[in-house]
Design goal:
Elements (H helix, E strand, L loop, with lengths): L5 E4 L2 E8 L2 E7 L4 H4 L4 E3 L7 E7 L3 E7 L5 E6 L1 E7 L2 E9 L5 E5 L12 E5 L7 E5 L33 E4 L1
Antiparallel strand pairs: 1-2, 2-3, 4-13, 5-8, 5-12, 6-7, 8-9, 9-10, 10-11
Amino acid sequence: MAPGERWESGNLELRGFERDGAVAVRVYDPSAPAQRGISEIERWPLDDRLRILTRLERTPHRGVPTVAVDGHRSTDDFDGVLHLALPHGDVSLCVQLLDDGSFFAAFSDATSGNESYRFRFLRISAPGPDGSVTVDLNRAYLPPCAFSDAYVCVFPPPTNRWTVPVRAGERLVR
């Protein structure tokens, strides 16, 4: 099975993926015990202060060292930085450009590991015609590894590990 390919059989779905040249298969089973044990995804109330208008600073960072939750070390490329003025302090967010023009980021904050999962993901819409970017931290979501140890999510890069709290978006799986 090649990376990106999917195959379904009954309730199972198989997906091919690749990491650093190694091809593997992920098995998705909606009847797995971990799936049956989820009762809710906790989230914080919406906070308009955490919807920030900013601009992308296109400063590509190539070959940034990364570590996945399983300890695998690799490198990732980041396409720019967003500077955010948050209620408890200013932070920078390294982002990756996606094929559709939007951005992806992983971040952790002062709530990570106690009030929230150890890190979260965020999709950010493409810049507007004037170059502005709206970062809505209320849309932060839990990575797949919050739901199953079978996922190998990559921890946020050092720039995206903040010492200020972000009480917005998804928090924990119950």
